[in-house]
């Protein structure tokens, strides 16, 4: 499944995931080697391909006819797709979905071939040897559908306000019309006890055919405590005949910045979160559903109420789980620690903006996402960098006015972008990269942000803090990298940060240990980022119980903290 619920009943949809595809290496000393591999998967998990960088080919067959729509939820990180030997689509970026339609296909079997490349180069501005692993493969699900000439592309639901009769929301329906002429359609929209029908006109190409405020009687709020969700079912009629449908899922809640707080349904939130990479030694970044659910169970067991998708958009099933479990999500576009030089790559801005566009278009309806993030620790201390930040915040606000936006910075007292975001966010590592206490670091940063940094009066969030520990390394000297040291450091970091009056929360860096790029071996024992509270296999370190004790304590105090 590519979602945790069915997205169509009428439209014919076949998933090409959870099956074996033909895989062939196209470069290096394994060139020409063929094997059968599961999709989704990362080739770094195939024996002998642990370090394969370059092009590889995946092939499978599917049955279909007419207008065939194929959607990839993620190919890492460059994809070139052909059907029956004809080029059909190409897409750069591992973490956002892309789709295409082939018109008028003959009935029968068709051959689908995907060339994927995980090499580094200027044409791929966001992927480089970094402090996380950039994998290769068809790393997320694939679906094949048969669509009519005018079909439903998507639906966005923006919660507006809670009335005594239920939630009012703005509904926007997007259609694609493959024909050359406009076409008259009618849309039937059902959600809970409300069913409405609208006439609309679908212009050729992609178009928003409906934007209406609708009162959905009897609907209740989505919250962390009570994550109420509703399926919204849209049926498209043409000449009185039901021709297409689309089922999505929404949760009614509002997110608003008020002074130094973020309010969810009018209540201030205190973030107790983890930064989490999509990574596992046995799956690469293609985590199976059960693994995602297990990670969230551990997060919740530790009393976390939020997860930061560092540093890229996540699998939609993970977001579905966050919606269902009431776990708040900071989702961000794909970037980590990119210098001004990298940001000056002419591919950078269009590629970074494309990720924002695809992320918000695909993930708009997830109530768990309360904030959009960009450009983790990029060049926000330079004028050129500022221009990029400015454009990307502008794009986010164009696409979505219902959520705040921010960016995690490490440019202490040099950041020249704090006037741009709705929330000021900092990554700090007291007791690890520097010996000052967390209280000193956060107080210095907070005062500078208010007095000189142009971030005065905004919510102030710590988006990263943590320390390294090698799983199983215990020593009475409590040296750095011991589990004892990490537990002590996190105790002090979490306590001093959450006790700081002006701070609205903290994300621990990080949930689990992850494999990193080979160039990082010198500062990353085992070429792993070992700041996880659990190791790569989710084995708990000593710090697990410390985080659990503290996060649950602050959860109990949340209501009194915000008086
Ligand atoms: C940065 C970065 C993370 C990770 C972390 C660390 O804050 O955002 O991706 O590299 O440092 O482990 O040092």
Describe the structure.
It contains eight helices and 28 strands. The chain has 563 residues and is α/β, with parallel strands linked by helices. The mean pLDDT is 97. Residues 131, 310, 336, 376-377, 410, 427, 464, 509, 529, 531 line the site of alpha-D-galactopyranuronic acid. Alpha-D-galactopyranuronic acid binds at residues 131, 310, 336, 376-377, 410, 427, 464, 509, 529, 531.
Helix and strand arrangement:
Layout: E1 12-15, E2 19-25, E3 34-39, E4 55-72, E5 78-83, E6 86-92, E7 98-117, E8 142-147, E9 150-163, E10 166-177, E11 183-191, E12 194-202, E13 205-217, E14 230-238, E15 241-250, E16 255-258, E17 261-264, E18 267-268, E19 271-275, H1 289-301, E20 306-308, H2 316-325, E21 328-332, H3 340-343, H4 348-363, E22 369-373, H5 383-399, E23 405-409, E24 423-427, H6 438-451, E25 460-465, H7 483-498, E26 503-509, E27 514-515, E28 528-529, H8 543-561
Parallel strand pairs: 19-20, 19-26, 20-21, 21-22, 22-23, 23-24, 24-25, 25-26
Antiparallel strand pairs: 1-8, 2-3, 2-4, 4-7, 4-8, 5-6, 5-7, 9-10, 10-13, 11-12, 11-14, 14-15, 16-17, 17-18, 27-28
Bound molecules: alpha-D-galactopyranuronic acid.
């Amino acid at each position: 499944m590519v979602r945790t619920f069915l997205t169509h009943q009428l439209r014919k949809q076949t998933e090409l995931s959870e099956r074996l595809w033909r895989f062939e290496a196209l470069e290096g000393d394994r060139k020409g080697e063929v094997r059968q591999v599961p999709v989704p998967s990362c080739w770094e998990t195939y024996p002998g391909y642990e370090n394969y960088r370059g092009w590889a080919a995946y092939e499978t067959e599917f049955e279909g006819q007419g207008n065939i729509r194929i959607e990839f939820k993620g190919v890492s990180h460059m994809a070139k797709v052909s059907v029956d030997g004809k080029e059909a689509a190409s897409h750069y970026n591992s973490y956002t979905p892309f789709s295409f339609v082939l018109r008028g296909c003959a009935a029968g079997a068709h051959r689908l071939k995907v060339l994927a490349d995980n090499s580094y180069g200027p044409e791929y501005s966001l992927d480089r040897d970094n402090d996380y692993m950039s994998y290769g493969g068809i790393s997320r699900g694939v679906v094949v559908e048969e669509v009519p000439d005018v079909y439903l592309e998507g639906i966005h639901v923006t919660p507006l306000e809670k009335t005594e009769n239920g939630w009012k929301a703005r509904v926007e329906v997007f259609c694609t019309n493959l024909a050359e002429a406009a076409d008259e359609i009618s849309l039937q929209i059902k959600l809970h006890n409300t069913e409405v029908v609208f006439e609309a006109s679908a212009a050729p190409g992609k178009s928003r055919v409906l934007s209406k405020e609708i009162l959905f009687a009897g609907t209740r709020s989505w919250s962390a405590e009570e994550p109420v969700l509703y399926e919204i079912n849209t049926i498209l009629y043409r000449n009185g005949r039901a021709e297409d449908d689309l089922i999505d899922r929404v949760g009614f809640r509002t997110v608003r910045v008020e002074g130094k707080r973020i309010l969810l349904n009018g209540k201030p939130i205190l973030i107790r979160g983890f930064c989490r990479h999509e990574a596992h030694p046995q799956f690469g970044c293609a985590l199976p559903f059960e693994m995602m659910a297990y990670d969230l169970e551990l997060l919740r067991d530790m009393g976390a109420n939020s997860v930061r998708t560092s540093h890229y958009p996540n699998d939609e099933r993970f977001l579905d789980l966050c919606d269902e479990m009431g776990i708040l999500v900071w989702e961000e576009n794909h970037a980590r620690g990119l210098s001004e030089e990298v940001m000056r790559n002419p591919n950078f801005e269009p590629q970074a903006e494309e990720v924002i566009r695809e992320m918000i278009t695909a993930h708009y309806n997830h109530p768990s996402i309360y904030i959009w993030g960009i450009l983790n620790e990029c060049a926000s201390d330079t004028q050129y960098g500022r221009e990029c930040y400015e454009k990307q915040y502008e794009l986010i606000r164009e696409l979505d006015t219902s959520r705040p936006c921010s960016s995690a910075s490490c440019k202490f007292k040099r950041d020249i972008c704090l006037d741009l975001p709705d929330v000021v966010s900092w990554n700090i590592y007291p007791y690890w990269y520097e010996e000052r206490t967390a209280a000193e670091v956060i107080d210095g940063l907070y005062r500078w942000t208010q007095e000189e940094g142009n971030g005065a009066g905004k919510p102030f969030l710590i988006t990263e803090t943590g320390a390294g520990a090698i799983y199983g390394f215990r020593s009475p000297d409590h040296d750095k990298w011991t589990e004892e040291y990490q537990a002590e450091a996190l105790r002090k970091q979490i306590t001093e940060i959450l006790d700081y009056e002006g701070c609205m929360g903290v994300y621990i860096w990080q949930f689990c240990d992850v494999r990193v790029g080979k160039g990082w071996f010198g500062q990353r024992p085992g070429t792993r980022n070992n700041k996880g509270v659990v190791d790569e296999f989710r084995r708990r370190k000593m710090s697990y119980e410390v985080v659990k004790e503290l996060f649950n304590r602050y959860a109990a105090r949340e209501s009194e903290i915000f008086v």
